Hints:
The chain is of the alpha+beta class. The protein folds into 3 domains: 106-194, Nuclear Transport Factor 2, Chain: A (Roll); 198-307 and 442-479, Nuclear Transport Factor 2, Chain: A, CATH 3.10.450; 318-431, Glucose Permease (Domain IIA) (Distorted Sandwich), CATH 2.70.70. The chain is 21% helix and 32% strand. The strands form 4 sheets. Strands 11, 14, 15, 16, 17, 18, 19, 20, 21 and 22 form a 10-stranded antiparallel β-sheet that branches. Strand 3 (164-172) and strand 4 (175-181) form a beta hairpin. Helix 6 packs across helix 7 (224-233). The longest helix is centred in the N-terminal third of the chain and has 44 residues, at 2-45. It is elongated and about 195 Å long. The N and C termini lie far apart (159 Å). The relative contact order is 0.10.
Amino acid sequence: MVESSNCAGQPYRLIDFILVACGIFSMFQVAQQGLNLVKKAEADRFPLVVEKGPDPARELFVFDEPYVPETFELMSMDPDDLFDACEQPQLLAKPDPKPNFYSGIKVNRGVVREGEGMKAALERYGLDRHVLDPVIQELGKAFDVRHCRPGEHFDLYRDSEGHFRSLVWHRSPFAIYEVCSGYMEPDRFVLIRQPVVVEKETVKVSGTIGSGLMDSFSAYGLSPRLAKQFSSIFASQIDFNTEARIGDSFSLIFEKYLKDNELVGYGRIIAARYCRLEGMCLEAYYNGEGDSKSKGYYTPDGRALARRFLKTPLKVYRITSRFTSRRFHPILKVFRPHYGVDLAAPIGTPVMAVADGTVDFTGWQRGYGRIVILEHEGGYKTYYGHLSRFGKGIRKGSRVTRRQIIGYVGRSGYATGPHLDYRIRKNGRFLNPLGSRFQAGERLPTDIRKQFLTKVQHLRSMLHGSDENRILSVETKTTYDRPDGCRG
């Protein structure tokens, strides 16, 4: 019985032991918390001061003076440089490009031969008829394709498959036409005129007369065309065929045009000067302002250089007989007056009217052969004898202008060789054509004259300069036609 009672009380003892242990643990935690509260209160009342030493890391980045490294290299801010080292993203493959309309273009350059037309020239390069005919038709809108001149050249463009693309026709340095086929409509053709880029040089040249005006100009590299223009300017002042002397000097400022560094034509002479050996000088300056009557060459003070009458009706000639009251006639074999001058020139040389006037007579007169007589203002008449034929439209009563062609040199009538018998008569009295002095030209209008005199002052300083040959200015211009005043 005793044993059974002990076994029954054991569970209660175990419970008591657990409760005692939990109480002891709780008391220990309470005591620990109390101790922590006491330490915190003492720390708040008496704080602990700790002296800190130097901070090595701080000393590395604090300086009394700005830090500048011995070598300093500025970093590029170009995004391409900043990201060169980075791996570039892989791009997607591009599709094949669209076929180019002008890919594989081939060009054939051709020239019109002697006795050949446009169609024959193009057929030599195998141009198909269904293309040839419409191309020629398009060019016919710009000029007469039936009158192609030998030397005209063209550029024929075809693609790699031989299909026509365009034709560029060079009719002259300033007339270039292109016929091209359309991109979407290859059978449709379009005509355009191409612009031309040229350089206009203003040049000064000075020289001395040698054996003649033409030869002297050639010796200085000047074109005969310039020599004719120069003599025409002073035609009413001096006759270069008979009055030019060795040692006379000349100066001129003129324009010339270049295309691709090649000379394509001369422009106007804008200033000219001719000085005789004895000291007399003639000067002329071109005026392009105002109406057609105001345009032309004037003296430095603005007076028209062209007098009413030209010195002679021929540009080139040789005097075979002068004005005299007693001359032995080579055919009649008698002495008789010769109230004119005989100007020898090849048959067919053009004869010009020396002044504005009206045709008083045209026909045949015994020893004069074919002759034209003109009547001018102021009681003047001029005679042109021994002609081979008359000029176009020259008949009694018709009006003529100075420099108009009224006939051509011949040997009709009493003549031993081809020449022109030229005479001047005033109020019934014959005058020496080579010794007559005619009325000076009119002055420029006041509104134009002031601007002209300013221009003359600038040109005259260059014309009188000591330098002989130099380029005064260069101007680049784009044009669709031959520039005003430009001749080949």
